[in-house]
Write a structure and sequence with these properties.
alpha+beta
Length: about 270
Amino acid sequence: MLQTPSSFTPLFAQQSDPAPLSFLFHGGRLLVREHDLALPDAATLDRLEVDRARLQPLGLYGERYCETGWFDSEPALPPGYALRGLRSLFADMDEALLGLAARAAQVAEWARTHRFCGACGSGTVLAAGERCYKCVQCGHMAYPRISPAMMVLIRKGDSVLLAMHIASPTKRFVPLAGFLEAGESVEEAIHREVYEEVGLRVQNLRYFASQSWPFPHSLMLAFTADYLDGEIRLDTSEISEARWFGPDDEWPERVPHMSVSSVLVDAHRPPGR
């Protein structure tokens, strides 16, 4: 599952390192060497005239310093380098490095969009000891944006409900999901989203797992719930299809466990399905 490796330690201050792991982005795409998906070395950063002072400290991967940043405009890349979307790297890049890249993408986008204060428009500076930008004029503080989203697998006897979300880039049957509204608990969001999207009521909510998801800055909170009552009634602006999958049904194909969604489904998949 896509996640930060356990040997990673966050840092909030820059460190000197002759060979850092440098995650550089433009338009959500990561700069990598094409033949082996390695990150650019110091010499490549020099050729690209990267402003090292603007790079953000990310942390330590073991003893290796990690930093992240962005290009304001698409760079003229050296031969052998390319910008790749993170999704396109799922099956190819080392899993630990991809987990770091997912974290780096969110920090870089936060830094790119908070160079100026959202309250008064003045410039900002990094606050000491935390990942925060502080306005030099009014003192407004801006932390990285994290958007919590609920996910729930509804169980009814030996069947589970899976749905096809209209906005899904994968077009697969998955658990129901949706973002929390201001002032909501995760549990309240689950009850609201389930009723809005498929017209059902649920009970016995149980936490399953969570996952940071960098598209662009979500925190997915996965649960299970038991069916209480109601008939499937689709919100056709959100859901194209939803149905129960039981032991005798043909289940959606297995996919690599990059997302907590596939882990949640496979934890309830009948043997042989």
